[in-house]
Amino acid sequence: MDFTEICEGKTCFVVPRQDESSHFPPGTAPVFFNPRMEINRDATVLTLSLVRPEHYLDAMGATGVRGLRVSVECGIPVTINDRSDEALALIRENVYRAGGGVEVVQEDANVLLSRRRFDAVDLDPFGTPAFFVDSAVRAAGRYLFVTATDTAPLCGAHQKAGMRRYFARVLNNEYHAETGLRVLMGFIARETVKYDRGISPLFCFVREHFVRVHFRVHYGAGQADRTMEHLGHVYQCPACPFRTERRGLLPEPVECPRCGAGLVPQGPLWLGRVQDHDLLDRMRTALPGMTLGSAKDLDRLLQICREEPDLSFHYDYHRLAKFEGISPPPIDQLLERLRERGYLATRAHYSGYAIKTDAPLDILLAALR
Fold it and tell me: Residue 243: how many CB atoms within 10 A of its CB?
């Protein structure tokens, strides 16, 4: 196996050399490594440096980079697991290069998660995490972190796959990134509450081809009931831009108040907050003292996530302008018009054309003109 050395943060490691002429170079190596996920790993290192779990499991290690960085840069006891012989050999090599101190195990992730507990469990599979969330919930002590890269099922492009994996109905709409994030959060919540446990979000975001969520786990039937209160549906009008949300596990028939069409429910999904604002403030304060390659992008991401209102959808203001048959104003001008009218209005962290606002649709359309 031909290797190349890479450094992220304060950690150096080797990965298999990839075919850069391929349309997806990470898929050409015998052990998977995606350099574009650095901001995902940076976010985890920054989060863990502040919440400080007693022990951390990288359940699907591949090259071992995520768990290795947690060990080196956060000083937290780490276990790295992978079932592949090639991955295990590479993880051990990288642990040796970093000076040791990391437990390396080789098991099927579901088996390991069913027989051991860890204060923090991290799932970062290739594709969907749906097959592992149940066992991860049972193994997680206080923290559960999950990445999903199957954005097509989560965002409604592959609707039947989304139903099979996440037991949720999703439309392929212009706010599909927000929907995908909340579908994943809602699925994890439903997998958690059946064990009389609850979750609260710490830092959850969408970036390019992946969704990343960090949760605090709570115990007791009361915590599970409080988690259930955050589940519901987004209702989208098929005939006009109107959309709204309602809480509850089962959808109800609802008519559009603008045009009378029957609204189409999406979900169940998470309707509660998606960030711990105090933690995000602490993360931004701590960021300048960290050695992170994506520090600038991560700071911008944290800033926008901190400002976003807890709304389960956004409006693409270019699409609204097209619906009205007008040219859209600059986005900052539109945001200021809404704020002058007394409404919350911000950008969304995953799109340059998205506006999150609590303004009624008629007010938003008026502000466009």
Answer: 21
